[in-house]
TrEMBL record:
Residues 73-261 form the Aminoglycoside phosphotransferase domain. The lineage of its organism: Eukaryota, Fungi, Dikarya, Ascomycota, Pezizomycotina. Pfam families: APH. This is Protein kinase-like domain protein. Transmembrane segments: none annotated. InterPro entries: AGP_Transferase (IPR051678), Aminoglycoside_PTrfase (IPR002575), Kinase-like_dom_sf (IPR011009).
Length: 289
């Protein structure tokens, strides 16, 4: 039988020492490096939690997650630090590494629980609504956080990083919503008729608030335990974006979801952005998805 175990590099001894020291400073338990049990075990007693062609997520002794791969976005760590500072339910980040073969790694706490997608289909309508309203409270808190300065982009202010259904869009940070609108129009197909470009540009606004945005609020990125949301994960497409961005991305990213998650949008979002949604759909018709 073929050996399917991952060949990812070990956490360096120096880095493990830093993690343990930081956990002690935070008053968190430090576990010995011991085997975690049977299953898909890789080096140093770690267990594979998720694996794809481009990334690997492993659980290490001491409830530490290592997320690694060439498509891992290190700016996610910056977003998690912003979210943790605002007392949002996110894993604590211990640091980042880059492996000798060019893979990015984020080392963070493991949040115990299940993804909301794992249990969603078994929930009653009242239970679904309760989770939706908890998420609404989290969103309202995110939107109350003052933006550090006037720009639109990731939490470090380095770039725009946008996930579509099958494409990833990047660009320099924008210093105003007008610049952000130009970024959106610049991604149109080259053959887009000028009349459509003018029509889309005429619809764009420049007066939205810029707020902390997750960018992929699907049930697969929500950790729950005992009826409560205890974690939001996968902040790779997050940052400071116009207030409507979370709303349109919520629908775009969940277009293939089989459940009725989107039926609870009115419970999740403090307000609707129907005009912006219609404009984004029109824009997307002339861009690669």
């Amino acid at each position: 039988m073929a050996d399917n175990r991952a060949k990812s590099p070990l956490l360096s001894a120096q880095f493990k020492a830093k993690v343990k020291q930081r956990k002690k400073q935070l008053g968190r338990p430090v576990s010995p490096d011991a085997e975690l049990g049977d299953g898909n075990v890789v080096e140093d007693g770690a267990v594979v939690v998720y694996q794809s062609v481009t990334r690997l997520v492993t659980l290490h002794p001491g409830n530490i997650i290592k997320k690694s791969g060439r498509t891992v976005v290190l700016q996610e760590a910056d977003a998690l630090r912003v979210a943790e500072a605002a007392d949002l339910p996110v894993p604590h980040v211990y640091g980042t590494e880059r492996t000798p073969d060019g893979r990015n790694c984020i080392i963070l706490d493991y949040i115990q629980g299940q993804t909301l997608s794992d249990i969603w289909m078994d929930l009653t309508e009242a239970e679904k609504r309760a989770f939706a309203r908890q998420l609404r409270a989290i969103l309202e808190k995110m939107r109350s956080i003052p933006a550090p300065r006037a720009y639109i982009g990731d939490c470090k202010g380095e770039r725009i990083y946008e996930l579509r259904l099958r494409s990833t869009y990047t660009g320099p940070p924008c210093h105003s919503e007008a610049e952000f609108n130009t970024y959106l129009l610049n991604n149109l197909y080259e053959q887009t008729p000028h009349a459509i470009r003018r029509a889309l540009a005429r619809r764009q606004r420049t007066d939205h608030r810029v707020v902390l945005t997750h960018g992929d609020l699907g049930p697969h990125n929500i950790i729950v335990r005992d009826g409560r949301i205890v974690g939001l994960i996968d902040w790779e497409s997050s940052g400071w974006y116009p207030e409507y961005w979370e709303y349109v991305k919520f629908l775009q990213r969940m277009v293939s979801h089989k459940g009725d998650w989107t039926a609870y949008m009115d419970d999740i979002f403090p307000r609707e952005y129907l005009d912006e949604l219609a404009d984004y759909i029109a824009l997307s018709k002339w861009q690669p998805l």
